[in-house]
Amino acid sequence: MTAAMPSGYTELVTEAKRQSRARKLLRERFSTAEGAGEALGMDNPTHYESFERIAAENRQWVIHAFTGSGKTWWAYRYIVRDIILNPVSARWCYMTVDPRNASNFGGRVLEALEQFGIEPGRDWGKNAIRTAAADPRRKEPSLRCQSTGATSEGWRGDLLLDDPFDINVMVSDAERRAKNALFRNTLLGRLEPMARLGIMLAPWP
User: Which of 13, 48, 151, 159 has the most CB atoms within 10 Å of its CB?
Assistant: First the structure.
């Protein structure tokens, strides 16, 4: 005699299968940088192709340091793609000199994740984003967005610096020494072995 299934069981199984297929299709869509750019409605500038390749092949070093137009949009695509493909392990800190720009970046990432149906975790705002799939044992969110001047205490993970310092580092020796010390003594210490570090800078005249 076969036991009857609980009420609603078939519907639950059907929905679970649907969600599994949807996640698989989303990962396939974001499996390449070009596919991610298309999904996000972005162009794929050719001068960033080397960035993707270096990031994939040599993760224990700085993945790239470059200047150029559209670099923040590249960072947006890169981080959204990484969170979608690695929802359990992704843990990024996006750091820029202006706190408003940091919040705006986090807001764009948040909108993209919601657009593609990524389930939110306990942190779900412009400055801290944690997916429901993120490792619950980890205190770091999937993405943290902050200004360079904010504390990075407790952070362990990948780091993306987008114009982390203002023009004062060019005109002031003291400011430059202070920021070099911050980078070497504090920020580099936040990277674990095999972590990724990206540095993007504005080409000041």
Answer: 159
Vertex 148 angle, CA 85 and 73, to 5°: 40
Beta bridge partners of 200: 66, 162
The values of phi and psi at residue 123, to 5°, are -105, 120
pTM score: 0.83
**What is d(CA 44, CA 197) in angstroms, rounded to the nearest whole number?**
21
Contacts by residues 99-102 (CB-CB < 8 Å, ≥ 24 positions apart): 99/146, 99/147, 99/149, 99/150, 101/162, 102/127, 102/145, 102/146, 102/147
Say how far apart CA 79 and CA 170 lie, in whole Å: 29
Cβ burial of 56 (10 Å; 0-12, 13-18, 19+) is exposed
CA 105 to chain centre: 10
**Type and span of the H or E element at 202:** none
Cβ contact 113:36 at 8 Å = no
Closest CA to 91 of 7, 32, 160: 160
Cβ proximity of 110 and 125 under 8 Å = yes
pLDDT in tens, 34-43: 888 888 887 7
3-state SS string over 77-111? HHHHHHHHHCCCCCCEEEEECCHHHHHHHHHHHHH
Q: Which residue type occupies 2?
A: T
Question: pLDDT, tens digit, for every residue of 74-105?
Answer: 889 889 999 999 999 999 999 999 999 999 99
